[in-house]
Amino acid sequence: MTKLNLPEQSVLGTLILPVAEVLELRGISAKPLIESVGIDPARLSHPDYRVPGAQFHQLLKLCVEQTNDEAIGLACAEVMQPQALHGLGLAWLASDTVYDGLRRLVRFARIIASIARLHIEEEDDLVLLHLQRTTDADESSPTGRDYGIALVVRMCQLNLGQFISPYLIEIERPAPESPGTWESKLACRVKFNASRTCISWVRADIESQIVTGDPALARVNDEQAEALIKDYTDESLSKQVVDKILLRLPDGPPEQGLIAQDLCMSNRTLQRKLKQEDVNYSDLLQDCRMRLAKKYLRQHGRSVSETSYMLGFAEPSAFNRAFKRWTTMTPAQFRSHGD
Predict the structure, then answer these.
(1) Which residues belong to any copy of the HTH araC/xylS-type domain (predicted)?
(2) Does domain 219-334 sit in CATH 3.40.50.2000?
């Protein structure tokens, strides 16, 4: 399996911002504490800045000591905003169902934090999201697991616009002195000293359509995507195909048959009608991704990792290869040339 082109055992720097916010709210200066573990506070908002997992967990341990609050990981998740997760956070809000959002999270979680691996399992009428740490037990922290669990629960809340209670949460961490705090904030029964870390939901709860969903967000939440659609004539099938491609890109490059299904026609009919416009599906998909890539890379606040996600690439290294094939330049070279 090809590995992500990311530092081993690391998290996005933006995950430290809620930690700093909680510290400041409690009257503790966050900057010196963050600096004491080797993290640069000035770079936390930079989309490409990553923090080694060991430093992340070390900071959380210090936060517990400074605040005397072993539930501080839960508090950090409460102030997290989806924008801090870049493209994944925005795509999460665009998901049709919470289950759809969880699938996206599993696919791209390594970009957010490579200190854990996620996978989904179905058991009868339940859906389980497993969080398996990749750091050594000595380096990880119970607070980090609390933060990760609470962050997922928080995102589900934002996704629905209302709170959705998990069925059960199991955590590989010692029972805290006040376990009721966890059950109160996470709104479900919490099992400590578990053999696994996972969140369980009733499947029917997370498969319900989200009536407040915003279709604009599903189009990558970006005006550039709308501009690309306008490059095709309103009457053309090509325009309709590109529109559907943009809706599905964050989940990976859609197959032609899936787009045909979205347009309520057979795969063969779609192929024939595109041929009448002197185009084919493969070229439309590649052209769509290439032109969006150039637009995104011109936006200096958007990282290469985020761009790769928005275009449906599971790994930045795959995006780098594709972009070089399209333009003979790497994304970094393209950005430096200002083309």
Answers:
(1) 239-337
(2) no
Distance CA 275, CA 114 (A): 43
* Residue 145: other Cβ atoms inside 10 A: 20
How many CB atoms are located within 10 Å of the residue 211 CB? 7
| Distance in angstroms (rounded) separating the CA atoms of residues 235 and 265 | 17
* pLDDT given for residue 300 in this prediction: 66
Give, in degrees to the nearest 5, the angle at Cα 114 between 31 and 140.
65
The vertex-113 CA angle with 6 and 126, nearest 5°, equals: 135
Under DSSP, the state recorded for 288 is: H
Q: Do domains 10-207 and 219-334 have the same CATH topology?
A: no
220-275 residue pLDDT tens: 444 444 454 455 445 578 888 988 888 787 777 899 999 999 899 999 999 999 98
Nearest to 19 by CA among 102, 88, 108, 84: 84
- 85, 111 contact by CB (below 8 A): no
Extract the tokens encoding 332.
Answer: 């970094």
Which residue ranges make up each domain of the chain?
A: 10-207, 219-334
Tokens of 189: 């029964």
Query: Pairing relation of β-strands 198-202 and 126-133?
Result: antiparallel
Residue 228: predicted pLDDT? 47
The SS3 of residue 131 is: strand
Q: What are the structure tokens assigned to 166, written together?
A: 């998990």
Residue segments in the chain with a per-residue pLDDT below the cut of 70: 1-8, 86-88, 90-91, 93-94, 108, 135-139, 159-163, 210-235, 300-301, 338-339
Q: Are 213 and 161 in contact (CB under 8 A)?
A: no
Burial tier of 238 (Cβ tally within 10 Å: 0-12, 13-18, 19+): buried
Q: Which two tokens mark 145?
A: 């697991």
C-alpha angle with apex 42: 114 to 158, nearest 5 degrees? 55
